[in-house]
Amino acid sequence: MPGKIKRPCSYPRCPELIESGTYCTKHAKAKDQQRGNSYQRGYNHKWRAARERYLRHNPECVHCEELREITAATVVDHIIPHKGDKRLFWDRNNWQPLCKLHHDIKTAKEDGGFGN
Question: What's the pTM value of the predicted model, to 2 decimals?
């Protein structure tokens, strides 16, 4: 059975072919460094306090509820990825409570697969 079809790295003029993700190993690291650390992206003490308040008022994972399961939410997810937009980052209408499993699944779908 043939393997996955490889496609080019999304970094401009990079000749590397990759099986999954967006960038080759070399450029994935460079993109991650440009992204900044969690504090630089806004996940600071102010975010942690807002997250705790939100989870106190919204304690169950919304995806588990849809499946008629009860699971504690541990993550405040941005429904629409904010990508640095502070207005979208702090918009509580763009937040949802998720368990780690459902957050990981959602993030992997948005980023193109696990391990990116």
Answer: 0.65
